[in-house]
Specification:
disordered N terminus, globular, 23 helices, 8-stranded parallel β-barrel, alpha/beta, 36% helix, TIM Barrel, 3-stranded mixed beta sheet, binds 1-deoxynojirimycin, 10% strand
Length: 667
């Protein structure tokens, strides 16, 4: 029997030691001793570092003795730690975001009773009380300076090839004869709520996500966006890193509640909020990166949500127009591309509990998605006209999402019909009125009664029609569509059918008897996502044919959540992201071919995202970044992943020689 004295790593007693004369037993004995040593080390590390290392399966077979401690990372750094010059010691990563537990709900677990405000009193005290009553404890940033990164920012040496060349070409050798147009925009996208952190800093008001994320279970890992990537302070570093990768454009969103902490027309404008975005825009241009602004990426000011239900109320329209006007006046001339709304289709189906406790009288949870669409489309249209009236430079549109769909069983009438239904109920819900007709798709109007889907008046139709200068799409994937089980008609007759009213079924495997999956699949918690590279070019072509514009088409987001990335125990494993690299390079290749060979007017692409960030209800569990963010590191250290470097190699070897996009703007 063997014993381990946990107090002393030396006290290892093996009374049954093998005899020297028995080589087989000696070998076994040595293996037992080695195994016991390893267990002992693992156990002691576990005591030092918490539960993660107590799970012996988290220990790699190789080099257990060099496991570094979390938080005490043996890299030599300067400044805020952005030039890692240390030895290539494997960097262990916590399997669980250490902030997750800390960031669990502390605020009210239901809607506080009574009025949130006496409207009209917009003082600091009122805002402080609002934070305290509705949100509770907020984690404050660990530093509050904007450090100036080196420029040019140093890039690491390129990663060694993953596969032989006959299987995967190096990025610069892919499609060697094709080149992007001279004014093509290539860059990354982020969104305020997912990236900025510092949610209570410099006068920002709470957003609806600051509130809902406090409800246990609302976010998969019970985290909030209090810190996120701390882009509020680290944006210069992130811009410098994007510039080093060759990016010439950066798409970011503005937190409405940083500009109007109370959200409302007539309430005070927060100069510090404006100043933050001015600095960001200014620095971006300084680096030759064209800043692209989204006015609304799902972060409704909480004050408007609790006062009148946010987008459930027509009151949101004037408040949004008022906010947009402030942004237009302040940023005219420094922003060329504007988006009013991000992915309205996703946004308007988000609320469940607890937002639905804020619905105004007369709007049921079933009506909300349609009422929201109505108010959002009207707000978009009004802001579009304001943009033109104020003579703001540049172009404006909104970001669609989703896909047009492909019939699962080609040639089968009911699947072809299901595709048309999906188009009408998804992209068409916004793109038809805004780009084409001013009104909801006919198919939808024929099926949804006005008490569910409020109709537009003739004046509103005129107001809405043609209010987009270009077509923007977050095209992550294409999907296969079939009629639902039991057929479309039966579904349409049954309001409680789970697929009602769209009445289609989505398939991510083909209809062959074998049922092959549609493409490489993403992180399982992102079960909607797969690499559909072979469909991306036809998708953009079809969209351009259906919704032609003078301004062309932008791929405003595309990206991938590498499977199980967040569970990788070592940094060098986490930054090896082959599935994301496949998607990004294959999409880029298809886009290049789409421009050069098919003549599709694709004007720019934005990868989601430059850095890992807070993925809404999934929290930090799914990573989408081209750069890894170590959330346990005091400076939220970023590390380029393979995909960032390979994407950059592809872009740099295929971009037009003289990139004139930003130069033209700054003239
Ligand atoms: C699109 C959304 O705009 C963005 O906020 C989200 O993080 C990505 N999809 C990935 O899910």
């Amino acid at each position: 029997m063997s014993q381990i004295d946990l107090k002393s790593s030396r006290a290892l007693v093996l009374p049954d030691a093998p005899k020297a004369s028995d080589p087989q037993r000696v070998r076994i004995g040595r293996m037992v001793i080695a195994a016991l040593w390893l267990m002992l080390i693992a156990y002691r590390l576990g005591l030092d570092h918490g539960p993660h290392f107590r799970n012996s399966s988290a220990l790699p077979d190789a080099q257990p003795l060099v496991l570094p401690k979390i938080h005490i990372i043996p890299t030599v750094t300067t400044g805020l730690g952005w030039i890692p010059t240390g030895l290539p010691t494997p960097q262990a990563l916590p399997s669980v975001n250490p902030f997750a537990a800390v960031r669990t709900a502390t605020g009210p677990l239901g809607r506080p009773q009574g009025k949130a405000f006496d409207w009209g009193d917009f003082g600091h005290d009122v805002m402080k009380r609002f934070w305290d009553d509705w949100i509770g404890h907020v984690i404050q940033p660990q530093f509050d300076a904007v450090p100036l990164p080196p420029h040019p920012y140093p890039l690491p040496s390129p990663p060694p090839p993953l596969y032989p060349e006959y299987y995967a070409l190096p990025p610069d050798q892919i499609l060697p004869d094709l080149t992007f147009p001279p004014d093509f925009l290539f860059g990354w996208a982020t969104a305020a709520q997912q990236y900025e952190g510092a949610v209570q800093t410099d006068g920002r008001g709470p957003s609806v996500w600051d509130w809902t994320s406090r409800f246990p279970g609302y976010i998969a890992d019970n985290t909030t966006a209090d810190i996120a990537d701390l882009g509020y302070y680290l944006y210069k570093q992130d811009l410098a890193r994007m510039a080093a990768l060759g990016g010439n454009a950066y798409s970011f969103s503005v937190a409405w509640s940083r500009i109007f902490p109370f959200g409302m027309k007539g309430s005070p404008v927060n100069e510090k909020g404006l100043k933050y975005y001015e600095d960001l825009v200014g620095y971006s241009r300084e680096l030759g990166i064209e800043p692209v602004m989204t006015l609304f990426h799902w972060d409704t000011p909480l004050a408007l949500q609790v006062e009148y239900g946010g987008f459930a109320s027509p009151r949101i329209i004037d408040d949004y127009v008022n906010y947009a006007e402030v942004m237009f006046r302040r940023f005219n001339g420094t922003i060329r591309l504007w988006y009013t709304f991000n992915e309205p289709g996703v946004f308007c189906v988000q609320p469940g509990f607890p937002q639905n406790t804020t619905l105004p009288h007369g709007v049921s949870a079933a009506q909300y998605p349609y009422v929201c669409r109505r108010h959002l489309v009207l707000a978009h249209a009004k802001v579009y006209h304001l943009f033109k009236e104020l003579n703001i430079q540049g172009e404006i549109s909104y970001k669609n999402d989703d896909y047009l769909g492909i019939a699962w069983r080609r040639g089968r009438k009911e699947d072809e019909e299901a595709v048309k239904r999906h188009q009408a109920y998804y992209i068409g819900f916004f793109a038809d009125p805004i780009h084409l007709t001013g009104d909801w798709p006919e198919l939808v109007k024929a099926e949804l009664p006005p008490d569910l889907l409020p109709r537009f008046s003739a004046d509103e139709v005129e107001l809405i029609k043609g209010t987009a200068d270009f077509f923007a799409i977050d095209a992550y994937r294409e999907d296969l569509i079939s009629a639902p089980p039991g057929g479309i008609d039966a579904c349409l007759r049954n309001r409680s059918h789970p697929a009602w009213p769209e009445c289609v079924s989505k398939k991510d495997y083909d209809s062959s008897p074998y049922g092959w999956g549609i493409g490489e699949f993403a992180e399982p918690s992102m079960d909607w996502l797969h690499n559909s590279w072979q469909h991306i070019r036809p998708l953009l072509q079809r969209l351009n044919d259906m919704y032609p514009t003078t301004g062309g088409i932008y791929l405003t987001e595309f990206g991938f959540a590498e499977p199980h990335e967040n569970e990788k125990p070592y940094l060098h494993q986490a930054i090896q992201d082959p599935a994301r690299t496949h998607l990004l390079l294959s999409y880029l290749g298809e886009i290049l071919k789409g421009i050069v060979e098919d003549g599709i007017p694709i004007k720019g692409v934005f990868a989601w995202s430059s850095v890992d960030n807070w993925e809404w209800n999934t929290g930090f569990k799914a990573r989408f970044g081209n750069q890894f963010v170590d959330y346990s590191h005091p400076t939220l250290k970023r590390t380029f992943k393979r995909s960032a470097i390979e994407m950059s190699q592809f872009w740099k070897s295929h971009r037009a020689q003289a990139d004139e996009s930003v130069a033209a703007m700054s003239d």
